[in-house]
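Appendix B. Worked example

We walk through a single record from start to finish. Start with the input: the chain for Pyridine nucleotide-disulfide oxidoreductase, Roseibacillus persicicus, length 398.
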Amino acid sequence: MLDVLMKKRLLIIGGGTAGISVAARVRRGMPEVEVTLLEPSEKHFYQPMWTLVGGGIFPKERSMRDEASVIPDGVIWKKDAAQKIDPVTKSVSTQKGDTIGYDYLVVATGLVCNWSAIPGLAESLGTKQVCSNYSYQHVDYTWDTIQNFKGGKAIFTHPSGAVKCGGAPQKIMWLAEDWWSREGTRAKMDVHFYLALPKLFAVEKYRKTLEDEVARREIHCSFEKNLISIDADKKEAVFADLKGGDEERVSYDMIHVTPPMGPPPFLKDSGLVNEEGWVAVDPSTLRHGTYSEVFALGDVSSLPTSKTGAAIRKQAPVVVANLESVMNGREPTAKYDGYTSCPIVTARGRLVLAEFDYDKTPKETFPFDQAKPRYSMYLLKKWALPAFYWHGMLKGKM
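Next comes the structure step. The output line below is what the pipeline stores for this chain.
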């Protein structure tokens, strides 16, 4: 009975990549800890596959599994959503009206897509040649649109602010352009990429490759242009000029939209977030600065790196190692260096594997130049990475 009373209680909010990875590692390394997972969804998605779904390479169903099938044995699954965190009383209120106490907390909620932030987008998505790979419900419409597009102006967008996988907004553009080239219809297409960013990619080594691809394939890039509204009936999109110029109204024949994204709203008054709403943690230890029993990782964290599954793969072991230290009265010593990876598909059978750290210094895995688009790296993304995800990361093995 004494052992039960003294058992440490770990609550993980979020059953996505980050939450499941941490839960699995804790169960493998600290089986004495009571782990509760707070997650309302009955389905779990491997979202990096959605680029390939939108590009016509996989059916979307291959990216989905039952949430129950990925929750580690011994983890208590609370099928509910967090509504309020009170770090002072160490408790979380849920949408169903329950209160869950904890000794240690890991926030791994991910981020949310704010479809309604762009007037005209939510109601037109999945119709009238308005598509997006960021919605499981509509991702197959992206492929329908690309397949059936016979000519005209095709627009792809990248919004301001953080997004899931910074390279994903352009990956579908590369796949679409490649498809049209293979089909012999490319000469009828006018391909445009509107980015809120000042350049194609943050790391110069990979940016140079992508700039060469843009020039060779005659894709028009408009930088520091942020989509602010859509009129699907008129097929018009309005972009704000982030340099201070006039708004630009652009006609299109198809448009792929990456929506603005942000942290879940319920975190706003938690006392855990920074001014932008992300859970404020130390960039090395992933521990909260005020509440020493709180950690965060993945897309919801304030870590100044790209929000990718590859980043989570390196963050999860740091969180678990530091949790163990804190639980045993020691200071956290495990460090995360900002490593992330962005596999940029530039065509069917070609991929640039960008890997880098906080300093935007390449941290490449393979003994060759990963900035060169390669078939072997495409196979890695298509076949190896999904297997690593389901059978490695989510099992706490890698």
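Two observations about the output. The chain is about 25% helix and 25% strand. The mean pLDDT is 97.
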